[in-house]
Amino acid sequence: MSTSIKDRLPPNQVLTAKGKWPLVGERVPRNDDGPWLLHAQGLVERPCTWSLDELKQRYPWQQRTLDIHCVTRWSMLDASFAGIALLDVLKDLSISPQARFVSFIARSERSHSTSLPLSDLEELDPLLAFEFDGQPLTQEHGGPLRVVVAGRYFYKSLKWLETLLFLENDNLGYWEGESGYHNHADPWKEERYIVSGLQRSEVRRLLQSKNLSGQTLLSLEAQSMRLPNLVAENALLRNANFQHANLAQANFKKANLSNAHFQGACLQDATLQGADVEGANFCGADLRGCNFEGASLFGATFAPEPGDPSTVHPAILDSHTRIPSESWEALSDAQREFLRKNVGEES
Ligand SMILES: Nc1nc2c(c(=O)[nH]1)N[C@H]1C(S)=C(S)[C@@H](COP(=O)(O)O)O[C@H]1N2
Ligand SMILES: [Mo]
């Protein structure tokens, strides 16, 4: 990897395999036959509505080549988007002086949203994108119209934009509220998560019971703990720190372990079936007999990436380790290569 590419990767991000753009979050917009309109509402002098054609005619067309950084650790460099600048649209609106935030709301079943402070817009210069790589955005990637905010984790880039809502007080976005994603989201400062609100004593009690099933414990600290046979089915354990922990035969079925740290952990005969391990790090972990069937592996790491220090060791696999090759798709080239050599035949 050339130094210039490394300089463009924020801390602890990995490049997606070439030409791969993972799908994250909602897959389809709300089922609605009406024409696609964009609304500006809330603290504006006059609410506005545009059709997509009006937007394209009215505002200068912009081509941007941007780097995208997903909170689950994959990055896509030099993504080429085209559309119009949000700042150009805002020039046409008289936004009330007491407005301090814009909430982007999606035409989606759960009215998915995310927000930005108005004071950050000048610097972030969000694009209202219609095209990717010279083609209309596909529906699953937010077509016909999505927000693209370079300089923030990709959850700030809303798919299927329908409403710009101007607010005095912030309206915390869907992922920011549901999953503890950091509301500022600067990838260069690694602002991924806010930490769990649970008391330390409560966390300790749960760990001692060895049963975390169904619990939500963001950014759990369990480094070097002895937790063999831990049961954590369906637990929400984003960003958990399990480095060097003993998790032999642990049951993490359907758990959310995105961005969890398993470096040097023992996961012998553990099951991660159906788990979300996006962005999780398994370098140096003992994965003999470990089962990843049906797990989601976007951005997961099992072995050093090119340029990593020599202190990063690969995971230990054996013929009983199950990492089905269907799930290798969105891994980086280096990770797929490692699995190809070490999972034996593509199981
Ligand atoms: N409407 C909507 N927009 C969304 C999401 C979502 O679930 N719904 N997920 C966000 C997240 S977490 C990411 S990483 C990107 C993923 O966009 P992609 O599926 O095109 O890669 O969209 C963001 N915008
Ligand atoms: Mo994301």
Summary of the model, kept short:
With 347 residues, the protein is an alpha+beta fold.
Based on secondary structure, the structural category is alpha+beta
pLDDT < 50 stretches: none
| Average pLDDT, all residues | 93
Q: What general outline do the C-alpha atoms trace?
A: globular
N- to C-terminal distance: 29 Å
Bound molecules: ligand MTE, molybdenum atom
Number of H- or I-type helical stretches: 7
What's the story with the biggest beta sheet?
A: 6 strands, mixed
Approximate strand percentage: 15-25%
- The level of helicity is 10-25%
Number of strands: 11
Rg, alpha carbons: 22 Å
The H/E string reads HEEEHEEHEEHEEEEHHH
Describe this structure in words.
This protein has 347 residues and is α+β, with helices and mostly antiparallel strands. The chain is 14% helix and 18% strand. The strands form 2 sheets. Strands 1, 4, 5, 8, 9 and 10 form a 6-stranded mixed β-sheet that branches. It has a 5-stranded mixed β-sheet with strand order 3-2-11-6-7. The model has no long low-confidence stretch (mean pLDDT 93). The structure holds ligand MTE and molybdenum atom (MO). The site of the ligand Nc1nc2c(c(=O)[nH]1)N[C@H]1C(S)=C(S)[C@@H](COP(=O)(O)O)O[C@H]1N2 has 19 residues, from loops.
Q: Could you outline the blueprint of secondary structure elements for this entry?
A:
Layout: H1 3-8, E1 14-15, E2 37-42, E3 48-51, H2 52-58, E4 62-69, E5 74-85, H3 86-91, E6 101-106, E7 113-117, H4 121-124, E8 127-132, E9 135-136, E10 146-148, E11 161-167, H5 174-178, H6 200-209, H7 333-342
